[in-house]
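Good morning,

Both structures are done.
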Amino acid sequence: MADRNFIRDNMGYAPLREAVKKVYGFDIKPILRSHMASATDKNWPATNNVAMRRDTLSDFVRWFTPLGLAMGNSRPSGHAFERAIKLFCILTGRHNLYDREVLQHFQMNSHETQDFKKDTGRLHQLLARNSREP
């Protein structure tokens, strides 16, 4: 996902920011603003297209579990989770690699948590393309 969606005032950023303040006692806003101003890697992953080493996954789960519990089962928590993966990597100095040739993420608003309606015609084109024999 593009950097403009990472820290703008949207569903995922606010609950993550509040949970980090509550659980870990610091504000992520200046950290993310600094990262976005100086980093060359300004992307963040969609949760369904992530692969990571086992040790990274274990560390992330230990770090994120208290945040998830603090956020609860709210609609924006899935969006917060996506951003949490990138935030964890920033905080721990772990690098991300993005290979757009392997998997693609299509923002289809499948949970109807965003302010747009999906283009079902576009969805049908994608599904038809994916179901064709090579």
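Second structure follows.
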Amino acid sequence: MFLATILSLAGLIAVTTIAVGICGSIQWRIHCQNERDTEFKRELLSNGFSVDEVERILRASSAKAERSTPRFRHSMRSRKAMSWALHRRA
């Protein structure tokens, strides 16, 4: 009983450590992306672009990025596969 308690606590600590590490990694990536965005805006402003032009450039580039992002179209296929698997299993 004592050993099971120790092992469960060790597992809980390990899972918590992994979760904190993943969250830290994600936050660091977001921070780096924000720094790059800020530096890009500063560079555009220092090259003589107005604030309105910078906003227009950023909006156009983000809209283009959204259009070029591949969309995963697996939801219907997954539903069909799940339905087929459930019917087959029954």
